[in-house]
Amino acid sequence: MKMKRLFAAIFALIGIFTAATAIYIGVNFTDRDPQLLTPPTVARSKVVMMMNAVCAGDYEQASQTILGTPSLGVDRDAADEAGALIWEAFRESLSFELVGECYTTADGLAQNVLLTGLDIESVTVNLKERSQTLLEQRVLDAEDISEIYDENNEYREAFVLEVLHDAVQQALEEDAAERTVELTVKLCYHDGSWWVVADNALLDAISGGILY
Amino acid sequence: MEDEILEKDDFWKELGLDEINFDNLDAVLAELGMDGESTVKSEADVKKAESPVKKDSVKKKTKKAETAAKKPAEKKTTAQKKQPSQKKKKAEAARSDIPERRPTVIGTVASTAVKTVAVVICALITVSLLCGIVLMSAGTASSMNGASNVAILDKFDMFMTNQISNALDGVLSVEKVYWLNDSDMVAPKPKADNYGHVSTPAELMWLLEEAADLIGDQEMIFNENTPVWVEKGIHYYYDETILVITWKEVIDRVVYNLSEVRIAHPSQFRRFLAGGEFGSDKQYITTDMASSVNAVVASSGDFYKYRRNGAVVYGGQLRRFEGEKVDTCFINEDGDLLFAYRGDLTSEEQAIRYIEENKVRFSLAFGPVLVDGGKACPPASYMLGEIHDHYARAAICQVDKLHYLLISACGEDGYQNRHTIAEFAANVESFGVQKAYALDGGQTTVIAMDGKAINDVEFGSQRQISDILYFATAMPDGE
Q: CA-CA distances (angstroms) from residue B105 to B102, B109, B110?
């Protein structure tokens, strides 16, 4: 009898305490983010999957991890040879590193990532000077003037493009610099799985900083 | 009551039972063993117990009923009413006899655990509801929208187009550079309108300004203070690839005919062998050969066909070699004058190696070297040119990169002195040239421009010779 009453008293106290705590939390912490006891590994692995695909140049695979599975428009080569050189160099230069663990946000989860790759602007900043110097040199070195000028006495397009191609090649070897961007990759839970939410910062970073 | 009993008696009698006395029920139950101690008895025992008990009780009750029927019903007092009936007392006694159930350890723990879990669950639900957070996310629809298509490469192509446009903007505006092939027999024709003539240097300063791009940061020998023989005037030719200014100065009563040339490309400094090939027997006067190749300005050469001295290079090939007796002037692909003094090259193989290493295009074989490194260095003796005598002299000089001076020193009008090689070299040095090489002098000496001889030719007529050196425009015909 006494034991029964004792247990009953204990549970009553626990109940009162729990209720009071719940009310206190509910009143004072309505704006606080939910706390995860353990971060969901599935969400983190989604980020890894996307970044691996981007670094491998497989943007189609990367788009499969993004909410809405948008087309990233990297299913062809760059329009000109000089651009193709730079884009290829950019793709091959990409690497990433996860920073910390997944954490909660108001809309879902987020994972910080450091993305390192070729700074495309560093390649193009001196392109004009390099092109000019190379053009002058090629003109002097040419054996036949008809290689350079057409019947209208204008520079041949093929000649100029070749000079530009070589200028880009030189710039990639001598001017290229790396750029590291800290990204916050956001995730949301939809239709039974985690998805990367592609914002402007993420798209710009995986495009070499030329999008926005 | 008695009626009921009687009715009941009839009932029980029909069942073969006597009257049941309910007042003795407890006792009956005790006798039956139904007193709280659960004892399982056989049906037979139960029946045995029932049947006699029932009979006895019925009998007792019958007797009591008869007794009661005879006596008037007695009313119970209040005290009697308050006192628990015997039945109740016995019931209590029976219950007190029943031992209490004690809770087991397992039961206690289990019930405690269940209660704890229930409390926790309730608390969690309360918290989540109050915080507005749904922890059970399965099947929860996201409020975010999917991303729309992004044409990354399209934007990259646009970016590159702009970069290329910027890169080529300055490139394509670079002045075009024209040059000539050594294999071209004839250069582009100079434009007649580009020739001109003025009287004083001041009248030509506009030309130096206009040709600033071609001149670059080099210093011209001709300037507004040049002591020009004004009566003879100043001849010039200019286009984007060549600037020629020709004037006369009188030094020690010797007329120096000077033609300062600035070209855009080394290929404009050229050599022509009469007949168009080495070893041809054809000979022509300087002005005719100059006109035939469209020279802007030309000078008589070394008259290579006349003698067999020096190293003769033409079209990049060594045509003839003799390195012991005369100095050779090589012109390389950069348009620079390179001197090989007599004895420097002692074998044909060495000469060939020298030609290949220095990318020599053609050579002149007369000499001597007059100025080297900006200093006059005429030799004390020389095989050719009667260096100690007073003759009309000719020289090709290099002032700077792609910057030359053709000089002929002879008589004209009232100035009929001539110079020795040493005097000639000293005057050549005074013009500020870096290198100077003597060409065949005497009657051979001619500077031709616009189809005419600039200097007075010795003995009044030009000698037919085997070669000239000349400067041509690189501007294509029609440009």
A: 10, 6, 8
pLDDT < 70 regions, chain A: 1, 31-39, 212
**Nearest to A140, CA basis, from B387, B175, B473:** B175
Cβ-based contacts of A75 with chain B (< 8 Å) = 153
When comparing pLDDT for A177 and B164, which is higher? A177
Range with top average pLDDT, A80-84, B102-106, B294-298: B294-298
Inter-CA distances, B63 with B12, B21, B59, Å: 15, 10, 6
CB contact under 8 A, A140 and B177: yes
d(CA A134, CA A174): 14
Query: Which of these, A152, A135, A139, lies nearest to B178 by C-alpha position?
Result: A139
3-state secondary structure of B76: coil
The C-alpha of A53 sits at a distance from chain B's nearest C-alpha, in angstroms, of 15
Reported pTM: 0.54
Parallel/antiparallel/unpaired status of strands B254-263 and B403-410: antiparallel
Q: How far is CA B117 from CA A14, B114, B121, B124, B396, in A?
A: 11, 5, 6, 11, 112
pLDDT at B135: 41
**Which A residues 6-35 touch B at CB under 8 Å?**
7, 11, 14-15, 18-19, 21-23, 25-27, 29-30, 32, 34
CB pairs under 8 A between A and B: 184
Tokens of B75: 């009313």
CB-based contact B169 A22, cutoff 8 Å: no
Number of DSSP helices (H) and strands (E) in chain B, helices first: 12, 19
CB spacing of A207 vs B147 below 8 angstroms: no
Handedness of CA B319, B321, B327, B331 (dihedral sign): positive
Chain A residues in contact with B181 by the CB 8 A cut-off are 143-145
Cβ of B155 within 8 Å of Cβ of A82? The answer is no
